[in-house]
Amino acid sequence: MKSFLFLIFCLTFLNSFGQPDKQQLERELFNLPNVSFINVSKPGDLFLTYDLMVKQPIDHQHPEKGYFNQWVQLKHRGFNNPTVIETHGYQMGRGGNEVEQILNANNIGVEFRFFGKSVPDSMQWEYLSNKQAAADLHYVNQLFRQLYKGKWFSTGISKGGQTTLYYKYLYPEDVDVAIPYVAPIDNAFEDTRLYTFMDTIGTPVCRQRIFDFQKFLLMNEKEAVEKLKWFAKGGNMTFSYVGDLGKTFEYAVLEYPFAFWQWGRASDSIPTNKNLDDYLSELMKTSSISNFSDSDIKKYGPHYYLAATETGYYGYNIAPLKKYIQHFTSNPSATFPPKEAKATTYDGTFHAGLQKWLAEKGNNILYIYGGIDAWSAARVLVSDRVNSKSFLIPGASHGTARIKNLPEGMKIEFVGKIKDWTGLDCIMDVLKTK
Questions:
Q1: How far, in Å, CA of 114 to CA of 123, rounded?
Q2: Given CB 3.0 to 4.6 Å as the disulfide criterion, which of 73, 159, 165, 406 pairs with 109?
Q3: Long-range CB contact pairs, 228-231, < 8 A, 24+
Q4: pLDDT at 169
Q5: Sign (positive/negative) of CA torsion 347, 352, 353, 355?
Q6: Around Cβ 116, how many Cβ atoms within 10 Å?
Q7: Mean pLDDT for all residues in the chain
Q8: What is the pLDDT of residue 342?
Q9: Which of 111, 46, 47 lies closest to 85 in space, CA to CA?
Q10: Angle formed by the axes of helices 193-200 and 245-262, nearest 10°
């Protein structure tokens, strides 16, 4: 009798950690068409983890044009648990997300097409679009709905948050709730709302320190560039896309205010002592020249291509610093699309349609933004025609605008919305604060 009870205890214990699902799950995965998989679970994990490659059409409207394999990662907690589809905007990220944690949900992470491992044999840039990327997500959703019948959520951060919105817009029935983090929706190729934001955010004293910091660096450009040659050489960096190190330096200086607010840098981190080494140290910490190196530009080429053709982006307002700038006579763009892609002219039609839909039909969306994040200048303003809610967290940056950092009142409202829309309870104490 004791051994029987012990067996029942073991089975119950294992079932709570999802382990007995392994055989059934692998059988289900094996039966999915056009999917290969490998178990990458780690000892001690409370879920099963699989890396999958999913065969996707390069052009969903014309599958005969060929296919590529898209990397998908599954974290399985239980067939009866809710499911989160995590819409990565770049390469796959292996970390967990807050939504899967508070819902004890299965998580399906999808790498964005043409990034990382999800690249066709030959890059056909004309098929890199948000519509094609959303169709990738829809296909993954339809595959896994055969396994998971509960409530479905989508979530993503930054460009991944944008992708959450594109997906919800084009396939509104795929998920019950969408939770995009820090997701800007630009209204032009050069969204000038960001300039207004940076001219008004923070205190006048802090904004003056930022300006003085930029001015000092530009006035000492020749010496600064000489010093940065060693930094570039040590990092094996080249700058042929931008042109040369001097132009790269000016890009980094112009980027500084945006990066300062995006990442929530402190005002006292800005040097005022006129020591060039200290100024360069702060510049490299906040808006490094490495961001404009050939290797980084190539890595994020698909992102820049989409920004230049569909989603818009931002530029640098040189007017206040124009007399100190040597390499630019008009506002340069922060986009660097691959030259071989021959990016077409920016077309804002997709974003215009998205914004209209969000205002009129964009229900069951919980937006999270940071109060000092520069990207919040382009945040979605929720209309009174939908039931969605935006949470603008005071003092939060691009990296800290998270569910765990919601003020208590916002947290209660956030949890309440999920309960009202899905009937599910959130376990908020699983999140570690700041």
A1: 8
A2: 73
A3: 228/280, 228/289, 231/284, 231/289
A4: 98
A5: positive
A6: 17
A7: 93
A8: 81
A9: 111
A10: 70
Sequence-ordered list of residues with C-beta below 8 angstroms from that of 208, at least 6 positions apart, any chain = none
Question: What is the crossing angle of helices 159-170 and 130-144, to 10°?
Answer: 70
| pLDDT per position as a tens digit, 112-148 | 999 999 999 989 999 999 999 999 999 999 999 999 9
DSSP assignment letter at 433: P
Q: Determine contact, residues 254/307, Cβ cutoff 8 Å.
A: no
Domain assignments of the chain as residue spans, ordered by start = 72-187+350-430, 195-341
Q: Find, among 129, 182, 123, 146, the residue nearest to 307 by Cα.
A: 129
By CB neighbour count within 10 A (0-12 exposed, 13-18 middle, 19+ buried), where does 433 fall?
exposed
Tell me how far apart the alpha carbons of residues 15 and 11 are, in angstroms, rounded to a whole number.
6
Query: Which two structure tokens, joined as six digits, stand for 158?
Result: 């930054």
User: What is d(CA 403, CA 414) in angstroms, rounded to the nearest whole number?
Assistant: 9
Architecture of the CATH domain 72-187+350-430:
3-Layer(aba) Sandwich (3.40)
Residue 271 forms beta bridges with which residues? Answer: none
CB 162 within 8 A of CB 89: yes
CB neighbours of residue 422 within 10 Å: 18
Token code pair at residue 20: 């007995």
Task: State the Cα–Cα distance between residues 89 and 158, nearest whole angstrom.
Answer: 8
Going 191 to 196 to 197 to 199, the CA torsion angle's sign is: positive
Handedness of CA 392, 394, 396, 398 (dihedral sign): positive
pLDDT(19) > 90:
no
Looking at residue 20, its pLDDT comes to: 57
Q: Are 57 and 65 in contact (CB under 8 A)?
A: yes
Type of residue found at 238: T
Place of tokens 């089975």: 11
The confidence band for 316, taking pLDDT boundaries of 50, 70 and 90, is: very high
Give 54-101 pLDDT, tens digit per residue: 999 999 999 999 999 999 999 999 999 999 999 999 999 877 899 999
Name the DSSP letter for residue 315: B
Q: Return phi, psi of residue 156, to 5°.
A: -170, 160
Tell me if residue 64 falls in helix, strand or coil. Answer: helix
What is the per-residue burial (b if ≥16 Cβ within 10 Å, else e) of 133-172? bbbbbbbbbebbeebbebbbbbbbbbbbbbbbbbbbbbbe
| Under 8 Å between Cβ of 104 and 75 | no
Q: Which helix H or strand E contains 121, and what residues bound it?
A: none
Q: Position of tokens 């959450």?
A: 164
- Centre a 10 Å sphere on the Cβ of residue 225 and count the other Cβ atoms it contains: 18
Tell whether the torsion through CA atoms of 60, 63, 66 and 71 is positive or negative.
positive
Report which residue type is found at 144. F
DSSP classification of residue 34: T
